[in-house]
Design a protein that fits this description.
Blueprint (H helix, E strand, L loop, with lengths): L7 H15 L3 H4 L5 H8 L3 H29 L1 H19 L5 H29 L4 H29 L3 H20 L19 H5 L2 H30 L4 H13 L1 H13 L5 H8 L1 H11 L5 H11 L2 H11 L4 H19 L1 H13 L3 H21 L5 H11 L1
Helix pairs in contact: 1-6, 1-7, 1-8, 4-5, 4-6, 4-17, 5-6, 5-8, 6-16, 6-17, 7-8, 7-12, 7-16, 10-11, 10-16, 10-17, 10-18, 10-19, 11-15, 12-16, 13-19, 14-15, 14-19, 16-17, 18-19
Length: 403
């Protein structure tokens, strides 16, 4: 008997998820390479620029927490489409304005769409591919890493080739507009199944009140703190070690570029294991080696230290696949995703701020790097506790029984 042909509707979901992954970071990171030009053109003050760079964290924390409830109200596919439309409108319209308030509001609109889709995506993977959570998490985290890398490297050249920073940023509105198309074809997936049994919805705060949710939030927050600190300051760290701006940028590119192949490997590998502690140990052991090397020999082994730190930062795709593995249902996954990411990204804001404060107070990078190294210890301990099989719904059931 011939094997059944692949369901074309499932391939549409795969295409939609890949397209969405590509658009989950450009709204946040494409501004960095052209920020000086934006500030000069809009006469943006330092305080306004600081608010602009803080908006991604605020959007992840605020709108990310609302995403699961909104998904229940309008349907996850409709919400994802609306989120993408917010990204398109926000990114497209902000390059046409000349005032700072309008630019900030439109940036927030785009970031709100990005943050909402970022939280809903793990639940959609759980809904459509419950038996392929690891593989599909690999697919979308790799797509996310590609989008992030392209936004960092392509925005300036596109602007220079065309008519300045506005055209460079407009590129990402056009990319998001293409991603709208497959999601428009998935709207029918939100029709309620009349034969389905209704289940009590799990709230974001309800997930956060469990020990599992609390540990997931702490692990994701510590991981994001490391990433924000590294991406925000390591270009300066490498330049202060004696490297040219170009070489410092290449070293930072090594840190970010490693996330592309490892984002494809780590979730797939982790999902095939009942206990993810070996993966956790392998990733987390890279932090002390990389930070220690930068403290002791920042110039001599810079390329190795960059590779080690970049590998450690791939705790991010591991955290995302754990969200899918630590809940049994799409609703539980959405609640756990909303809590983990909103709490985690808000917590992560401490990273770049704290690293700057420590550098100003000590005049060197030794103490900030030691602080990141020390913070890797609780991240490892919490991560190891999450690496063993556990599920959000089991925690909620135990809470209900003990009442």
């Amino acid at each position: 008997m011939p094997a059944p042909s692949p369901d074309p509707r499932r391939w549409l979901v795969v295409v939609a998820i890949v397209a969405l992954g590509l658009n989950l970071r450009p709204a946040a990171v494409s501004l960095g390479p052209v920020l000086d030009d934006v500030r000069a053109d809009l006469a943006m003050s330092g305080a306004e620029a600081g608010l602009l760079t803080t908006l991604p964290v605020l959007a992840f924390a605020g709108f990310g927490a609302l995403a699961p409830r909104l998904a229940r109200l309008v349907g996850p596919h409709r919400l994802t489409l609306l989120a993408l439309l917010c990204v398109v409108v926000g990114l497209g319209a902000r390059v046409t304005v000349s005032g700072v308030p309008a630019f900030l509001l439109l940036s927030l609109l785009a970031l709100a769409g990005m943050a909402t889709a970022n939280v809903v995506l793990p639940a959609l993977v759980k809904r459509h591919f419950p038996d392929r959570v690891g593989l599909m998490t690999s697919v979308y985290t790799t797509s996310l890493a590609v989008g992030l890398t392209l936004a960092l490297t392509v925005t300036v050249p596109v602007g220079e080739a065309l008519d300045g920073w506005r055209d460079g940023l407009l590129t990402w509105a056009l990319v998001a507009a293409v991603a709208v198309l497959p999601w428009a074809g998935l709207l029918a997936r939100d029709r309620r199944d009349p034969t389905a049994t209704s289940q009590r919805a799990i709230g974001v705060l309800e997930a956060g009140r469990t020990s599992l949710g609390l540990r997931m939030g702490v692990f994701f927050g510590l991981q994001s703190l490391q990433a924000y600190a590294v991406y925000g300051w390591f270009g300066v760290v490498f330049r202060d070690a004696g490297f040219s701006p170009t070489t410092a940028g290449l070293l930072l590119g090594v840190i970010g570029g490693l996330s592309i192949p490892l984002s494809l490997l780590i979730p797939w590998l982790a999902a095939r294991m009942d206990d993810q502690r070996p993966v956790m140990w392998a990733l987390m052991s890279c932090y002390p080696l990389g930070y220690g090397g930068l403290i002791l020999a920042p110039a001599a082994g810079a390329w190795l230290w960059a590779a080690l730190v970049g590998t450690g930062l791939c705790a991010f795709p591991l955290a995302l696949v754990l969200i899918g593995l630590r809940a049994r249902t799409p609703d539980g996954t959405a609640a756990l995703s909303g809590w983990t990411q909103s709490f985690g990204y808000l917590f992560a804001a401490i990273g770049p701020f704290g690293m700057g404060v420590l550098h100003d107070a000590t005049g060197s990078w030794t103490v900030p790097l030691l602080a990141l190294l020390v913070l890797a210890v609780p991240q490892l301990l919490v991560g190891l506790s999450l690496a063993r099989p556990d599920h959000l719904e089991d925690h909620l059931e135990r809470r209900t029984v003990t009442r």
